[in-house]
Amino acid sequence: MIVATAGHVDHGKTSLVRALTGVDTDRLPEEQARGMTIDLGFAHAALAPGLAVGFIDVPGHERFVRNMLAGVAAIDLALLVVAADDGPMPQTREHLAILQLLAVPRLLVVLSKADRVDAARLAQAGEELHMLLAGGPFAAATVLPVATPTGSGLPAVRQHLVAAAQALQARPMAGHFRLAVDRSFLVAGAGRVVTGAVLSGRVAVGDMLRLQTPQMQQGASLRVRGLQVQGLQADAAQAGQRCALNLAGAELKRGEAGRGDWLLAEAAPPLTDRLDVQLQWLPGNGQPPGPRAMLQLHLGAAAVPARVSALGDAALGDAALGDAALGDAALDRSATAPGRAGLARLRLARPVAAAWGDRFILRDAAANRTLAGGWVVDPFGPERGSSQPLRLAQLAALARPDPAQALAAWVDAAPLAADLGHFAAARNLRDDEAAVLHKDLALQVIASAAGPLGLRADAWAGWQQRLLQAVDAWHAAQPDSVGPDDAALRQALGLGGTVAAQAVLRAAIATAVAGGALQRLGLRCCRPGHQPVLAAADAALLAQCGALLQPAGLRPPIVGDLASALGLPLPELLPFLGRMGARGLLVQVAPNRWFLPETVADLAAAARALAAAHADGAVDAAAYRDRTGIGRNLTVQVLEFLDRAGITRFDGKRHWLRGGLLSACD
Ligand SMILES: Nc1nc2c(ncn2[C@@H]2O[C@H](COP(=O)(O)OP(=O)(O)OP(=O)(O)O)[C@@H](O)[C@H]2O)c(=O)[nH]1
Ligand SMILES: [Mg+2]
User: Fold this and answer.
1) CB atoms within 10 A of CB 349
2) Ligand 1: which of 5, 10, 20 to mutate, judged by most atoms within 8 Å of the beta carbon?
3) In 135-271, at which residue ranges do the beta strands (DSSP E only) sit?
């Protein structure tokens, strides 16, 4: 269990931690000289046999709220210390508001300096505390009077902490490992040690991690050489614990880590400087600042300048801050009214490793005031359209606490197919965790250029059915044609040209082809056994053409030579070729060269094979020429044709397989 102190300056926090653990956490010379805590202090003690409790002692002075915030991001219990003679003071209130906004699960109030007051004052201080806590989440918190110099009241505090630690449920280990770094130092003989709170996942000795600092945007790759949890050697640490990691790696240079940095699993989602959040403004601060105001975001152990703007004119209501079911019913206007809650977008001056559910605080650093707090709903919101109804529906889906319900709503909010990669990154899901959710929801998962997409099973079945209907309708309307190409099918199905639309169509066709319901012929699709109905003369001439083109493979004769070989004048051959082209029976790849549809499939297959073999997935013209042996000029024409057909894309220098390796007609 991790406990942090909270409360006004000089109210006895450090004295209490010392009395409970025997450790003086005011280590800095300046702290000892001034008798005041400036930075976080750390201690741990076994309050009962085998029951280690970690303590984070925070400063109470108003100037050091920033340090206090770095200590309380991931604690199990807060120890609010209030001096009986003073009663609640400004930082008592501010710290309490922070603990509430961070949704710290438990609070124990210690009424300190009980030896300095009489019974009447003690009772009065208790009453003041009662009024302070009334109506809030900690209204039922236990209040224990303590006199640190005599030790009176300490056994009750210890007993309460032991009971809380015993009742504590281990946090789920879900997600990629993330640690919010709060200290970093060198240990003789061991090297670099980094400490902090594990916000999610699990880490074990030997793991490779990514250290993210503002200086190292790409992150440094490091190995966990050793690990301690609450002062004891351990093999692994997990969410909810504080740990010290001894790191090794060539990229780790002296002094290159510190508070606010992040240690992440190598597969963890990237850092982000844009957070879509559920925000709660504290009452009593007047109108919330406008979108230009620079505030300070405190998340994990990081403090980052941030701007805030409301999202949409409708936003999730106050209920969203709790664990209540969210979404449809909980819509509320006025996301920016003081004391109200709403959805907002935070734009950060520096990226953070935020994940769904992370709590944070917003302060006005200049005025030294806590203004708001909330939790991260989506750390990867889109640059544009962040207030569109579709986007707000996505946020309502993501805001659901239960991951399966959230994914179901996320899929249902998607117009065609849901971006499963976005969902997994936002919720910090590992691949195995995401796969379980996909399976439980019986999602059809489709690979696309933009990552995995998901459809409900019935929606997927609907697309497959409509695809076959569209091909049937095409055959009925155009019996002399091979069948529709992808563009025609997308149009017939009303699918549009988005990456998702292309991926869904391709996957539906591939499934139908694999199941024997469709066939590919070149760039077109048809029902198996479909024979285009042709006039007898055309059929005969096509057969003759086939006999000449087929043996020529990837380098068929140019039209002039084809005409000569057929014994036809060119002006008679050209209209025939045009007719066959319109029906998909022949394909004009270059101005003077026509191919059989099956040979076009071979041209695409060659491009796909090259892209697969090439490290960066490009289709290199010289390599294409060498592989196909069709010569330089025809290679250029073929690659231009593949660009036009949507199989490759030319960026001015090189050709790339569209939609990655999955796209070429298959
Ligand atoms: N008589 C009496 N004095 C106390 C008690 N608790 C703390 N003190 C004294 O109050 C002074 C401040 O105590 P600290 O523990 O440093 O207070 P703090 O809350 O840690 O202060 P900051 O860290 O600066 O916010 C010290 O001189 C303590 O000896 C108590 O229960 N009784
Ligand atoms: Mg102190």
Assistant:
1) 13
2) 10
3) 142-145, 178-187, 191-200, 202-204, 208-213, 216-229, 232-233, 236-238, 242-248, 262-265
pLDDT given for residue 35 in this prediction: 92
Q: How many CB atoms lie within 10 A of CB 49?
A: 5
Ligand 1 geometric centre to CA of 149 (Å): 10
Alpha carbon of 391 to ligand 1 centroid (Å): 51
Which among 225, 148, 212 is positioned nearest to 181, based on CA atoms? 212
Task: Give pLDDT, residue 255.
Answer: 56
- Ligand index nearest the alpha carbon of residue 92: 1
User: What is the full DSSP assignment across 412-464?
Assistant: HHSSSSEEHHHHHHHTT--HHHHHHHHHHTTPEEE--TTS-EEE-HHHHHHHH
647, 664 Cβ separation under 8 angstroms = yes
The answer to whether residue 331 scores a pLDDT higher than 70 is no
Nearest to 631 by CA among 536, 540, 556, 527: 556
Q: Please name the residue whose Cα sits nearest to atom 1 of ligand 1.
A: 113
> Where residue 387 falls among pLDDT bands split at 50, 70, 90?
confident
The C-alpha atoms of residue 565 and residue 9 are separated, in whole angstroms, by 99
Query: How far is Cα 198 from Cα 240, in angstroms, rounded to an integer?
Result: 6
| 49-93 per-position pLDDT tens digit | 989 899 999 999 999 999 999 999 899 999 999 999 999 999 999
DSSP conformation class of 660: G
The DSSP bridge pattern shows strands 142-145 and 106-112 to be: parallel
- Local structure of 134: helix, strand or coil: coil
Burial of 494: CB neighbours in 10 Å, binned 0-12, 13-18, 19+: exposed
| Confidence at residue 338, expressed as pLDDT on a 0 to 100 scale | 60
- Three-class secondary structure assignment of 633-645: HHHHHHHHHHHHC
**Ligand 1 center to 182 CA (angstroms):** 25
Take residue 372 and report the two structure tokens written for it: 């708001």
Residues whose CB is less than 8 angstroms from the CB of residue 309 and which lie 6 or more positions away in sequence, other chains included = 291, 344, 345, 347
Using pLDDT thresholds of 50, 70 and 90, give the confidence band for residue 452: very high
Q: How many CA atoms lie within 13 A of 188 on its CB side?
A: 0
Distance 347 CA to ligand 2 centre (A): 34
Q: Would strands 359-364 and 208-213 be described as parallel, antiparallel, or unpaired?
A: unpaired
Q: Give the residue carrying structure tokens 């280690």.
A: 52
Residue 448 has which token pair? 């696309």
Q: Whose CA is nearest to atom 14 of ligand 1?
A: 12
Closest atom of ligand 1 to 15 CA is 15
- Ligand 1, atom 4, lies closest to the CA of 113
- Determine the distance separating the centroid of ligand 1 and the alpha carbon of 478, expressed in angstroms: 90
- What is the 659 CA–ligand 2 centroid distance (Å)? 58
In this predicted structure, the answer to whether residue 549 has a pLDDT above a threshold of 60 is yes
Q: Which burial class, exposed, middle or buried, applies to 343 when counting CB atoms under 10 A from its CB (0-12, 13-18, 19+)?
A: buried
Which position has the token pair 């925070």?
58
The H-assigned helical ranges of 535-654 are: 536-549, 559-566, 570-583, 597-613, 621-628, 632-644
Q: Each residue of 131-158: b (16+ CB within 10 Å) or e?
A: ebbeeebbeebebbbbbbeeeebbeebb
Mean pLDDT of 627-634: 94
Ligand 1: residues with CB < 6 A are 9-15, 35-37, 59-61, 81, 112-113, 115-116, 146-149
Distance CA 566, CA 573 (A): 9
- Closest ligand 1 atom, residue 91 Cα: 25
